[in-house]
Protein: 4-hydroxymandelate oxidase
Organism: Actinoallomurus bryophytorum
Amino acid sequence: MTGLARFERRARELLDPVHYDFFAGGAGDEVALADNEEAFGRLALLPRILRDTTGGSTAVTLLGDACEMPIFVSPTAFHRLAHPGGERATARATAAAGTVLVTGTAATTPVADVVAEAREIREDATVWFQLYLQPDPEVTAALVRRAERAGCTALVVTADSPVFGRRGRDDRNGFHDLPPGLYAENMRDLPGGADRVRPIEMSGAFTWEHLDRLRARTDLPIVVKGVLHPEDARLALRHGVDAVLVSNHGGRQLDVAPATVDALPAVAEAVRGRIPVLLDGGIRSGADAVMALALGATAVGVGRPVLWGLAAGGEKGVGEVLELLRDELVHTMALCGAASPGDLTGDLVTRRGAPR
Ligand SMILES: Cc1cc2nc3c(=O)[nH]c(=O)nc-3n(C[C@H](O)[C@H](O)[C@H](O)COP(=O)(O)O)c2cc1C
Ligand SMILES: O=C(O)C(=O)c1ccccc1
C-alpha cells in the first residue's frame, strides 16, 4: 500500500468504528465525498521537459504568512476524538512542517493553547481560525476576539453550512454528541453562557451583510470557505474578502455539490488573480495538489488525511502525512518541469484519455 492509504487503514484499525465513521463520512449518498477524490483521477498532468528545476522551492506566501509548502491543514472538528494529543499534536506537527494550521470553532482544544503549542515548535508558526458565525452577534464577536488574542492571523468563515449536513453514518450509529470530557472548547464561557459550553449553532439567516459587519469588526484577513459558484467569488471580491476557499466541506454538506477541482476553474476565472483562491476536498497526494495549483489554486487544504495521521500516530503521524505530501509534491513538480508553484499553469492539466 502506497502513500496516504496506509494511514487511513491504520486509523480505521485503531478508532472506535463510530468515530471513524464520523471522520470518514459524508452527507446523503456520499456522492460529493467520492467525487472529490475521483475527479482528480479523471485528470492527468502534461509535463514539460528540459526545464531547469534545480534550486526550486515549494514556498508560498498566504495572506502575508510565509508558508513552506502550498498544502495547509483544513479545519476539522474534534481532534481529541482521533487521538488524546488532539489539536496540540496537530499543531506541533503542522508547525514543524512549516505550514498553516486552520483550527476552529469545533476544536476540542482552546485556540490559545493550539497557537501556544505551535509556537513552541516554531515561533513564527501560523494558525488561522475557522469561524462558524453564530446567531448571537455577541457570541461571534467573542469568538473573533478569542482568535485575535490567541495570535491567529486570519479568519476562515465557513459559509456552506446554513444547516448541518445529513450524515447517514452518524444517524445510523446514533453519534450526535462528543463523549464525556470532550468539548468544543472555544464555545466555553461565551456571553450568555458563562461556565458552560454553548452548542455550535448553524443558521440560514446569514448574508454578505454579516461578512461586512465582520470586516468592520476585525483587521484580520477574512477567507470565505465553501465557495463553489463563480458569482459568489465575485461577491466575495466586492465585499472585501481576502481569499476564497473552494470547498464542499469534504462532501459533508450538499451531497450533490460538484467535486471541488471541477468547480475550481470557473472560480479562478472569476477571481482573475485579484485574491488567492484556495481549495480543499479530495487531495490525497502531491500530484492532486499539483493539479489543483495548476488549475488556479494558490494552496490546497487537507482534512481527513491529517485526521488519519493523527489517529494512526499522534504528532508523529500528522508529521509523516505532511512530509509524505510534501515529498510527493516536490517530486511531481520536478517531473512536470516546475521549479516553483508559480510555474504550475493550466496548460499542464489535461483530461485522462483525451490528451490535447
Ligand atoms: C471530520 C470532519 C470535520 C470537519 N469539521 C469542519 C469544521 O468544523 N469546520 C469547517 O469549516 N469544515 C469542517 N470540515 C471540512 C474540512 O474543513 C474540509 O473542507 C474537508 O475535510 C476537505 O476535504 P478532505 O477531507 O477530503 O481533505 C470537516 C471535515 C471533516 C472530515
Ligand atoms: O463535521 C463537520 O463537518 C463539521 O463541520 C462539524 C461542525 C461542528 C461540530 C461538529 C462537526
Q: What stands out?
A: The chain has 13 helices and twelve strands. The longest strand covers residues 222-227. The domain at 5-348 is CATH 3.20.20.70 (TIM Barrel).
